[in-house]
Write a structure and sequence with these properties.
This protein has 364 residues and is of the alpha+beta class. The protein folds into three domains: 112 residues, DNA Polymerase III, subunit A, domain 2 (DNA Polymerase III, Chain A, domain 2, Roll), CATH 3.10.150; 119 residues, DNA Polymerase III, Chain A, domain 2, CATH 3.10.150; 114 residues, DNA Polymerase III, subunit A, domain 2 (DNA Polymerase III, Chain A, domain 2, Roll). It is 19% helix and 44% strand. The strands form three sheets. It has a twelve-stranded antiparallel sheet with strand order 15-11-12-13-26-25-24-19-22-21-20-23. The chain has a nine-stranded antiparallel sheet with strand order 6-2-3-4-18-17-16-10-14. The longest helix has 11 residues. The chain is elongated, with a radius of gyration of 25 Å. The N and C termini lie far apart (71 Å). The model has no long low-confidence stretch (mean pLDDT 93).
Length: 364
């Protein structure tokens, strides 16, 4: 194996692939990055049995070959190299990395022990990377963190002819986002459950442009810009979230600029004890935001708002409220019924793409 490659291209690819390396590998070879050189391309792969990443980049390949190198060490070496072409040569059990006057020799890992990477499912449609990343950021905060309840740690993907819906819940709130996509016209599963933390990591690293989505019964794949990530799916069981997110269930509606309300909630929460309520008192023209009153102190601030319905007083766990408001760009509409029942936060419009149901706390 012998090749020459641009330093910046190599550094970006190995850093991206290394996100799939696990800190607690089932077997030692899973700490490695697999490099496969053939034709005029170099493919860099990582796998931990649940997630795989493959990046294919251009390279001047003089001698094709495959090698498994210690992943995190390779990332650090490549990152530290001067910004000059990098030459990689394999001789026996050592890979030599040369860049300018710098030279490193890395002992290889046993490539024969490395498991076969899963084949990516065929694409069932395409979605814009920026749109998908924004949707994931809106929904993932509502996914649970308790791994003993896997269903609650995932993000549900529901697929139909023209829309892709993402949804998540941790029992205290539900977030859902509809986004347009381009299906390929092939038969698709009704839905899939992807681990929330993994999906968030995938979304942050998507290259600009269209991303192909593939789903089978047990695996999902996201491909774009020469990079493919596969992830093992969770059990598809999930709640009927659409039944809980009906706008017609809410008789009182408030409308407010999301940014000022977020700022006010953050400020008054400085004097609130952990997990205590932030109280919102809605009247036509403003909302009074209050928190505290215990041993530390109290805070209050008013924000301009519009109210359609009777005055309302309702309280929320502050971070749950902030997560919901953060998903809205501009004006937020908040649907309520009573102070004891959940509230629905949506973006403006008759058919909102973003919906966030949050449990209310008991007023004291």
């Amino acid at each position: 194996m012998k090749l020459v490659i641009d330093h910046a291209v190599l550094a970006d690819a190995v850093a991206w692939a290394a996100h799939a390396l696990t800190n607690r590998p089932a077997v030692p070879v899973l700490t490695g990055l697999l490099l496969d050189a053939d034709g005029d391309e170099l493919t860099i792969s990582a796998f931990d049995y649940d997630t795989s990443r493959r990046a294919t980049i251009s390279a001047d390949v003089a001698e094709p070959g495959r090698v498994l190198l210690p992943g995190r060490v390779l990332v650090e070496i490549v990152r530290a190299l001067p910004k000059k072409p990098v030459e990689l040569t394999l001789s026996g059990h050592e890979a030599t990395i040369t860049c300018g006057s710098a030279e490193f020799g890395l002992l290889t890992l046993p490539i024969d022990d490395y498991p076969n990477l899963p084949d990516a499912p065929d694409a069932i449609g395409d979605v814009d990377a920026h749109t998908l990343a924004a949707a994931v950021a809106q929904v993932v905060p509502a996914a649970g963190k308790d791994d003993t309840l896997p269903m609650l740690t995932g993000v549900r993907l529901d697929i139909n002819d023209s829309d892709l819906t993402l949804a998540a819940t941790d029992r205290y709130r539900i977030a859902a986002r509809d986004l347009a996509w381009q299906p390929n016209g092939v038969d698709t599963p009704a839905g899939a459950m992807i681990p929330g933390r993994v999906l968030a990591d995938i979304a942050k690293s998507l290259p600009a442009g269209p991303v192909s989505v593939g789903v089978t019964d047990g695996l999902a794949a996201f491909t774009g810009g020469g990079r493919t990530t596969t992830v093992r799916l969770l059990d598809p069981q999930f709640i009927d979230y659409n039944a809980r997110l009906q706008l017609s269930d809410f008789s009182i509606w408030a409308e407010v600029d999301a940014a000022p309300l977020i700022s006010a909630v953050k400020r008054v929460s400085l004097v609130a004890e952990r997990n205590t309520a932030v109280r919102l008192s809605w009247t036509d023209g403003e909302v009074l935001v209050q928190a505290g009153g215990g041993d530390t102190g109290r805070g209050a601030e008013t924000v301009a708002a519009e109210l359609d319905g009777a005055p309302m007083e309702i309280a929320f766990q502050s971070q749950f409220l902030l997560d919901g408001l953060a998903g809205v760009d501009g004006r937020a509409r908040i649907g309520m019924t009573t102070g004891a029942k959940p509230a629905l936060i949506v973006d403006p419009g008759g058919t909102p793409a973003y919906r966030y149901l949050v449990m209310a706390l008991r007023l004291s």
